[in-house]
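Q: My collaborator sent me two sequences in one message, no labels, and asked for predicted structures for both. Can we handle them in order? The first one she listed is below.
A: Yes, handling them in the order given. First sequence, followed by its structure tokens:
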Amino acid sequence: MKKKNMAVLWVVCFLALLIIPRAVWTVTKDNYETVVTENTVVTEIPKLTKDNWKSYGQSLEDYYNSNVPFRSQLIQANSLLNVNVLKERFINEKVVIGDDNWLFYCEETNIEDYKGTNLYTEEELAAMAQNLLNVRQQLADKNCEFVIFLAPNKETIYSEYLPSYIQDMKKGEQTRARQVVDYLKNNTDLRIVWPEEELLAYKDQYSLYWHYDTHWNVGGGYIGTRELLEELGMYLPPVEEVNYTPNDFSDYDLARMMNLWDYYKENRPAEEDYFVSGYPYNNMQVIQGAGTAPLQYKSEAPETRKLFMVYDSFAGAMINVLASSFAESYMVGWNSTWNPAQVDEQQPDIFVLELVERRLDYLSTFSLTE
């Protein structure tokens, strides 16, 4: 009898664990922050169809895992436990905590790029170069210049803040980005801008990347933009001749991935971003700049060549300076609204392909044909 009562008690407790959190959540959820921090979160319950019946069980499980009651709060509590009590370095599969509380992105290829464990073969480099030469020829047929701009990963510029055990795994000074830059410069006449040296020169004077985010800030973006404009035969004042005024903005994407945005905002460094002023603004005007639509700008800049740029998120810290430097510019995200037909529509004089170091593979597949 006692065993039977114990079994009933366990069943009741199990059902209570399933039911009570959901019931409490239903009543109180409006009082809690429920920001989604993971890209893989499923926000809509899947519908069963004749085409997905085999995978429907997994889809349903993913939905309920993504919408478990108090999910956001549980992730936050776990992250705080790991950060403050257990002193863990890897908080989840996306974020690693470095020295002095710097955060680093460990998905995609960031850590492998730093360690130099994912180098290209000669055949891969040759194929990449040929693809880019084909793109340049297509643009040349349209009387358009072609320039490639690569933004270094945060780990490339501030590697000293990576955990020591990651630093110890570095294979040497060669990395994929340096491979690509050297190969293109030594084997082709393609124009490529890689501002690693310039960023390293100012990294101790200014924090050029956000501590809690994957991206460079406006200070880093200005240095990169200056190198790009120099390649295009244009002048932008050096860092010493402009004003870097501290700004407290950061999107903190890495902190968001741990659901600790508020925590890191309260513990942010004194100087982590900047307003940059003192360069020619040329009465720049935004023609279209909202949402994911192509960005369009006009200014009174003396440079009359029209700029067309395909960009990723690192361009966010470059756009104002670029737009102020050209009388007309058109910019489109490579993974959102980019369409090769836009080149014929806009008829630019300069085409810039901008992307961050961790997305170098895109150079092998980028095309002007649909």
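Q: And the one she listed second?
A: Here it is, processed independently of the first:
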Amino acid sequence: MDPKLLGKALGAIASYALSRDVFAVRFICCDARAYDRGWVRPEDLVHHFTLQGRGGTVLQPGVELLNALALRGDFPRGGPVLVITDGFCEEHVTVAMEHAWLLPQGHRLPFVPRGKVFSLSE
């Protein structure tokens, strides 16, 4: 995803979290592998957050990392998870936790998603 659209996505997460009094979100960045950025305050997503990776996107390693964190007690076992992608990812992603997808408007996933799909205008 281009940096401007990623900025909008981060702003949407921050706005939603702040409106719901969420004190922190667990942030996993994905490209060819997953990068755990740890717990991040929503307001830091707007002002002080740098993404990691940004190569070709493979999402399943990020989902598996969240599963491992949940087993260790470092993430809620049931989620919720918001997966942000431009849709250019592998042809199958399995997310067992409660989840939703955030894609740029007009983009699609290469599979039928189980979670809700939200779009972000470019």
